[in-house]
Amino acid sequence: MEQPNLSYIHSMSGGDKLFEEKLINILKDEFPNERKIYYQNYKSNNFKLAAENVHKLKHKISILGLEKSYEIAVAFENNLLEGNTNLGQEFESILISITNYLEKL
C-alpha cells in the first residue's frame, strides 16, 4: 500500500516552511473529526452522508500524495451513493494509514 507523504505540500509551498506547517496543522486538526463523523454515518448505514464525508476526506488523501488511494476514495464515494459498501475495507485501511502518519508528524 502506498504511504502518505508531504511531496504535494512541499511542491505547493515553494519552500515556505510556515505555509507547510500551517497546512500540516490544518490536516492534523480536521482529519480526526472528519474521520469520526464518517465512521458514525457509515456505521449508522447513512450512506449518503458517509459519501459526503468521503468527499471531504478524499481531498486530504490527495494532499498527502496518495494517488491510488484517492482513486479508491472516488469509487467508494460513488458506491456509497448507490448504497453499496464495496471498497469499505480498502477505505478504512487508507484512513488508518493517514491516522498513523499524522500522529507521527
From TrEMBL:
GO terms for biological process: phosphorelay signal transduction system. The keyword Phosphoprotein applies. Keywords: Phosphoprotein. Residues 16-105 form the HPt domain. The lineage of its organism: Bacteria, Pseudomonadati, Bacteroidota, Flavobacteriia, Flavobacteriales. GO terms for molecular function: protein kinase activity. The modification Phosphohistidine is found at residue 55. The keyword Chloroplast does not apply. This is Hpt domain-containing protein.
